[in-house]
Design brief:
Number of helices: 11
CATH topology of the largest domain: Spore Coat Polysaccharide Biosynthesis Protein SpsA, Chain A
Structural class: alpha/beta
Number of strands: 7
Number of domains: 2
Order of helices and strands: EHEHEHEHEHHEHHEHHH
CATH architecture of the largest domain: Alpha-Beta Complex
Distance between the termini: 16 Å
């Protein structure tokens, strides 16, 4: 069984050596790949010094890096973690064992901060809960820590993942992809530590939070177009009725329609509501066809099986 540890990095010279070394110790049979996102410090040299296989992705953004990692690396099991030293490498074996023994396609390491105020900022905690709740409401299921970057994937998951996102929306897209195709997944609690000294967060609480929120609604439109456009249709229909109501009252009382522009506006909005509903019906059929295509492609890949028991 080929296992690959894939580490997206940007300006992590202070942490990447220790991160690579810790994963080599935890998973001696795995290949360690560092994908540097055009860092301007010594991340690449430190990763090479630790013995990692280093690749460079010039196009900035974590989503772009993950897209390249999934495309370039050929393995049976993929373990993804950030290169900042916050994730516990000792949990790697447990995550992989859970994936194989449970026949899952994705296992997420849900974060349990060692020192909550230092490792996990309150704004990030609140944003994670809000965004996770929105995904659970829209797609019917979800995770307790949707934005965790510590994950293990099967080959069939990685090679059927379309990867639209460019930045920190990637964890959201990974989650929704699993929910959309009904893929088996699990969560395993892992410790989450403060960053190694010298490492700084690249995540902007508000900017990236709103980008993730907008991306959720983008995927809502793409993956569930009928409910999405039905909501738009219902809103337009209610607006049309509200505008037309005084016109109807006046017509029933006098038999006249003095507010012709208002009546035309109401009619135009109602036509737009009907068009939105029809668009939702048509696009829902298209989305179903795309989903069937992905599922058939998914079935071409064999599930992960360990030929020999894992030696502790």
């Amino acid at each position: 069984m080929r296992t690959a540890v894939i580490l997206p990095c940007y300006n992590e010279e202070s942490a990447i050596f220790e991160v690579v070394h810790s994963f080599k110790t935890a998973l001696p049979e795995a290949s360690i790949h560092v994908f540097d996102n055009n860092s301007n410090d010594n991340t690449i040299s430190e990763a090479k010094r630790a013995g990692a296989i280093v690749s460079t992705v010039n196009r900035r953004g974590k989503g772009n890096v993950v897209r390249r990692m999934f495309a370039d690396i050929d393995a049976d099991v993929y373990l993804m973690a950030d290169g900042d030293g916050t994730y516990d490498s000792h949990s790697a074996g447990k995550l992989i064992d859970t994936l194989i023994e449970g026949n899952y396609d994705m296992v997420v390491g849900s974060r349990e901060p060692v020192q909550e105020e230092l490792a996990y900022r309150r704004g990030h905690v609140l944003g994670n809960k809000v965004l996770t709740g929105i995904v659970r409401f829209i797609f019917g299921a979800g995770f307790t820590d949707m934005l965790s970057g510590y994950r293990v994937f099967s080959r069939r998951f990685v090679k059927t993942f379309p990867a639209f996102s460019e930045g920190f929306e990637i964890e959201t897209e990974l989650t929704i992809h699993a929910l959309r195709l009904g893929l088996p997944y699990a969560e395993v609690a892992t410790t989450y530590s403060e960053r190694i000294e010298g490492s700084t967060s690249k995540l902007s609480t508000y900017k990236d939070g709103f980008r993730i929120l907008f991306f959720i609604f983008f995927l809502f439109k793409e993956y569930r177009p009928f409910p999405f456009f039905s909501l738009i249709s219902a809103g337009l229909a209610l607006l049309s009725i509200a505008i037309a109501f005084p016109v109807f009252i006046h017509f029933f009382e006098t038999g006249l329609v003095p507010r012709v522009p208002t009546a035309i506006l109401s009619m135009g909005i109602m036509i737009s509501a009907l068009l939105a509903l029809v668009s939702g019906i048509v696009l829902d059929s298209v989305s179903r066809g795309r989903r069937e295509h992905l599922q058939l492609h998914y079935l071409r890949h064999q599930p992960v099986k360990r030929k020999t028991p894992r030696v502790e």
